[in-house]
TrEMBL record:
UniProt superkingdom: Bacteria
PANTHER family: CONSERVED MEMBRANE PROTEIN, MEMBRANE PROTEIN
Keyword Membrane: yes
Signal peptide (from-to): none
Keyword terms of this UniProt record: Membrane, Transmembrane, Transmembrane helix
Species assigned in the record: Cohnella silvisoli
Start and end residues of each stretch annotated as Disordered: 344-366
The protein's name: Membrane protein YkvI
InterPro entries in alphabetical order: YkvI-like (IPR038728)
Amino acid sequence: MKQWAKSIQVALVFIGTVVGAGFASGREVMQFFTRFGYWGPYLIILSTLFFVWIGAKVMLLAAELKAKSYEDLNKYLFGEQTGRWVSHLMLIVLLGVNAVMLAGAGSLFSEHLNLSYQTGLIVTMFACFMLLRKGMNAILTINTFVVPLMIGFTVFLVVETLRHPMSDHWLSSASELSPWAAWLSPFLYAAFNLSMSQAVLVPLGASIGNARILRRGAWIGGIGIGVMLLGGHLALSARMPGIKQFEIPMGGIARELGAWLHWIYVFLIFMEIFTTLVADIYGLTLQLHERTKASQGMLTAMLLLVCFLAGQFGFGPLLSTLYPMFGLLSLGWLFLISRDRARTPNSPKPPNPPASTSGLLESRKL
């Protein structure tokens, strides 16, 4: 029972890391799936398979390598020098993603709470800084609370959407977009989200260390992400194309359901944005601390300040521009990790096992 509880906790962190500003707001689901019409469900199923498979591989490799940060994993995959440059690139990409998270919180405050965009940025930054003083335990705790609520509300939203006159639109709506763009979309989406999730999945896998717990957590988490994607796609498809006018489309849908449900869902969207921001900033802080040995509190504050400055461009423009571009950059990473055949942490070690990540790199030919 303890192992199952731990696996569920791993799954909730996995889901909470992926379900960020773009996902919870509906913008990401619309960008990668809903706009492709009836292809959407098939694209989501393909993405779900990637989440289960690659999510497990990332955590198992991290446990095997006893990786302190995602740079250790990248050095193993790409080699010492290239891995360092890939980690530099990922640092920039993660900063961009976190700027999107912060901008999403600002848009939520301005569009649904009648507060200024800047207020949303500042309140979210302060709350993130305070929570991160508690480390990984805070990330585990907050996801254990928020993710089940988000899953429950997604189920409720699906039930309500089934009563909508256009509820079957997700199975019949056509798209004028290229089929090539449609079938590239799940690869971009999975590559982007999984490569970005390294910042959390690597230290999580290393800290848990048990292959059975990690593999089971990846299955539960990956399928949970897929179910939430399908639920969001169904709800958005039934309200296309009018729902495109909202910066936070899912908030617009919640507004139809009544004042109380609207406020509850707005709160949940904010918490999902917040959990992903907290997790990613934590991973970046660990990465920079390993390099510079500077105070983690100071590094966290600096990262949040950079995200605040980048967030001035706005949520919609940042997401629609950065996410597809980052997805393309992540495809190489997805290819390398998908072809790697790593041992599990509990499997027998080969003769003369390498003593460290650097030893692994010397003995491994990519």
